[in-house]
Amino acid sequence: MLLIDDLILRALGITIPGLDLIYTLEIIKNLAYKELYNPEKVKSRIKENQMLYEFGEISRGEFEETKSSLMEQLKFTERFEEMNLSVRSDIFS
What is the dihedral of CA 41, 46, 51, 57, to 10 degrees? Predict the structure, then answer.
């Protein structure tokens, strides 16, 4: 019910600070995306994979498989960051 109330209030141009449910959900979503699609985390996982291989903890096949997967993930996260999807777009304005 709060979502419907929020949509109706937004359609009328009324916002109540602190009670704007859609805005709060957007903030949570953006924080989750930043955490999930963080290129620095992927880069550190690539370094960790390299070190595991160098110390003989994993085989060359595991290293190559993990490396290719992480490189794809890195490309995706960098594209995500370039697109700047975390910018709030207000569909009701």
Answer: 100
Identify the domain containing residue 81 by its residue range.
38-87
pTM, to two decimals: 0.61
Q: Does any domain span residue 28?
A: no
Residue 53 domain-assigned? Answer: yes
What are 21-41's pLDDT values in tens digits?
777 777 888 888 888 888 999
Q: Are 49 and 67 a contacting pair, CB within 8 Å?
A: yes
Number of structural domains (the chain) is: 1
